[in-house]
Amino acid sequence: MSEITASSSIGAIGLSKRARAVAPFEVMEIVGRANQKDRNGDDVIHLEVGEPKFPIAPSVAAACHAYLSAGRAQYTEAAGMPALREAIAAHYQRVFGITVEAERIVVTNGASGALVLAMAATMDPGQALLTADPSYPCNRQIARILGCDTQLVPASAAHGFQLRADQVASLATDQTGAVLVASPSNPTGTLIEPAELAALYQLCQTRQLPLIVDEIYQGLVYGQDPSTALAIGDPWIVNSFSKYFGLTGMRLGWLVCPPGLSGAVTNLAQHLFISPSSLSQAAGLACFEPEAIAVFEARRVELAQARDYLIDALTALGFTLADTPAGAYYLFFDISKLSDSSAQLASELLEHANVATTPGHDFGPTFAATHLRVAYVDDRARLEAAVSRIRGYLQARR
User: Fold this and answer.
1) CA distance 317 to 394
2) Is the per-residue pLDDT at 312 higher than 80?
3) Which of 146, 178, 194, 208 could form a disulfide with 122 if both were Cys (CB 3.0 to 4.6 A apart)?
4) Averaged pLDDT of the chain
C-alpha cells in the first residue's frame, strides 16, 4: 500500500460522516490564494472577506489594556458578564426604544456561537432549516453539523434576495424546524421591509415555527435608521460585535432569546463553550461608550461613501446591480455581461488584476454562476486602485 493510499484510508476511518459531509467555506480558498500572492510579493487588494481595514477603536483598545493590566483572565458566567448583558439591553432601549430584559440576552463566542445555540435550541436532528438562497454559507453547514438539513428557497432580486412570507407558507413542511432570515443580508446587503418581516413573524407564530433573525450588520445601514425585529415581536435575534463595532478577531456576539428560553440556551452554552472570552467581553462593554460610538458612526459614513463609489465605478464596467443595498458592506453583482462563470471571473481578477472577490457559489446554487460578491472594506484609494486594475484587465481581455 502506498503512503498516499494509507494516509487516505486512515483519514476515512478516523472521520465521522458529519465531518466528511460539511463542505468547505469556499471564500477561504480565495483568501488562501490571495494571501499566497501577498507572500510572493504581489499587492492584492482584498475585497473578498467581510472585514473592513479599520483598527480597533482607541477607547476600546484602552479598555482591553486596562482589563489585562488588572490581571483578569478568568471564566465569566456562561451567559456573559452581567454588566455586558445589561449594556446590550440598554443599547436596545437607547437606540430602538425597546425594552429587552437582560436575562433574555446570552453573550456568545461570536455570532457563529449565537447561530449554533439558536439552531441547537430550536431544531432536532432530521429537521430542516428553511432559509433564502443566497445566504451566508455557514448557516447550512452549522445545521448539517447539528444533524439537520437545509431547505434553500430561491429568492429574487425583485424582492431584495430576501425570503418572503408567502414562500414560507407554501414551502414549510412538518420537517421544517426553524426559519432563518438576515437583515441586512450577507451577501446582498439588503434589508427585509418591515411589513414583510411582520408578515413573516406572524406566519411563523401561526405555524409554530421558530424565527431566527440575523441582525449581525444591524448598525451598518445607510440613508435610514437601523431597526430590529424585536419591534414586531419576540423572534430569536443573532447579533455581533464584529461588524458595526469592528471586533472581528475578538469573536464576540449575542443572542436575544424569546421570553423564558434563555435558561435552556445558557445550559447549552455551558457545555459547548463554558463562557465567552472575558477580554473580549471587556472590549464589548467599552463599545457602548459615547467615545466609541462616535468612531463607529464616522466609519459608517465612510462605508456609505465607499458603497456609492463602487456602485458607480463597477456598473460602468459592466457589473449589474439590481438595486442599491441599504446595509452591510457587500455588493452582490450580476456578472452575466462579463462572464459565464463567477468562479472563473473571480479567479481571473485575482490572478491578472490582483483583486480578490467572492464568487456566488458560496451563497447557494441559484446565483452561483451569475453573481459575484464585492466587499467595500478598504479605503478609498485602494478601492480606486481596485477599479483601475479591474478596468485594465477587462479591457485587455477584450
Assistant:
1) 8
2) yes
3) 178
4) 94
Round to whole Å and give the CA distance between 154 and 131: 9
Does the pLDDT value for residue 248 go beyond 80? yes
Phi (first) and psi of residue 221, to 5 degrees: -125, 155
Nearest in space to 91 (alpha carbons), one of 243, 191, 219: 219
User: How far is it, in rounded angstroms, from Cα 179 to Cα 212?
Assistant: 6
Other beta carbons within 10 Å of 8: 12
CB 329 within 8 A of CB 376: yes
96 touches 231 (CB < 8 A): yes
Q: CB count, 10 Å around CB of 144? A: 16
| Reported confidence tier of residue 1, pLDDT bands at 50, 70, 90 | very low
Answer yes or no: pTM beyond 0.85: yes
Q: Is the pLDDT of residue 231 over 80?
A: yes
Q: Which of 76, 78, 58, 77 is nearest to 66 (CA)?
A: 58
Helices (H) and strands (E) in the chain, counts: 14, 12
CA neighbours within 13 Å on the CB side: how many for 7? 3
C-alpha cell at 397: 481581455
Strand partners, 108: 253
Can you read off the three cell numbers belonging to residue 210? 421558530
Check residue 8 and give its pLDDT. 43
Q: Does residue 129 sit in helix, strand or coil? A: strand
Region for residue 108 given its phi and psi (left: phi exceeds 0; alpha: psi -120 to 50; beta: otherwise)? beta
Helix axis angle, 82-96 to 278-286, nearest 10°? 30
Whether residue 276 is predicted with pLDDT greater than 50 in this model: the reply is yes
Retrieve residue 13's grid coordinates: 476511518
Residue 132 burial (CB < 10 Å; 0-12/13-18/19+)?
buried
